[in-house]
Amino acid sequence: MPVELPELPYSRTALQPHISAQTLDLHHGRHHRAYVDRVNAGIAGTELAEASLEDIVLGSQGSLFEAAAQAWNHAFYWQCLHPRAGDEPHGPLAERIARHFGDVQKLREEFNRAALAVFGSGWVWLVQHADGSLAIVSTRNANTPLTGTSTPLLACDVWEHAYYTDHQSDRAAYLRAFWRLVNWDFVASQLR
Ligand SMILES: [Fe+2]
């Protein structure tokens, strides 16, 4: 059963003007698709041929791991966004954020610092540790919290392909756009 490229959970123009249709065409239609295609080429005829994407991430190394982790990270990232700009966290998620960061603005500031500090390509995550605490972590290149003990709640792709079309190399401008699009209901749904 090959791994499939998930459909975007919104139309290709839905995130404009913050993330353009051109960026989604490139990022989802070319980069994400290429990772999925590489996974399927890598698992064909192996013991992972019928495995879930999560199990492929956990059971592979090298270039297959990189492609599988990128396929998983991107599928998660698309779900972290939605077109209802200006949303704020509420309910139990807002209470957790207040407890661990003070407020959502402080979370954003810490997240942005981590995002701007990633040298080259990588990801920034809001995660829930096994003890229930929330934290900001960054991962290099394809690496993903999926291989650790923390639960990912929110992901930001800081590979340049995520923002070059819209913002050239201005990662800070991309982060401002990202925060306009965060799907806090999805983030809350990932809490354990
Ligand atoms: Fe990406």
UniProtKB/TrEMBL annotation:
The EC number(s) this enzyme carries: 1.15.1.1
UniProt enzyme class: oxidoreductase
Positions with a binding annotation for Mn(2+): H27, H74, D157, H161
Domain Manganese/iron superoxide dismutase C-terminal stretches: 89-189
InterPro entries in the cross-refs: Mn/Fe_SOD, Mn/Fe_SOD_BS, Mn/Fe_SOD_C, Mn/Fe_SOD_N, Mn/Fe_SOD_N_sf, SOD_C_sf
Domain Manganese/iron superoxide dismutase N-terminal: 4-81
One Gene Ontology molecular-function label: metal ion binding
Catalytic activity: 2 superoxide + 2 H(+) = H2O2 + O2
Keywords, comma-separated and alphabetical: Iron, Metal-binding, Oxidoreductase
Family (UniProt): Belongs to the iron/manganese superoxide dismutase family.
Function summary: Destroys radicals which are normally produced within the cells and which are toxic to biological systems.
UniProt protein name: Superoxide dismutase
Organism: Stenotrophomonas pictorum JCM 9942
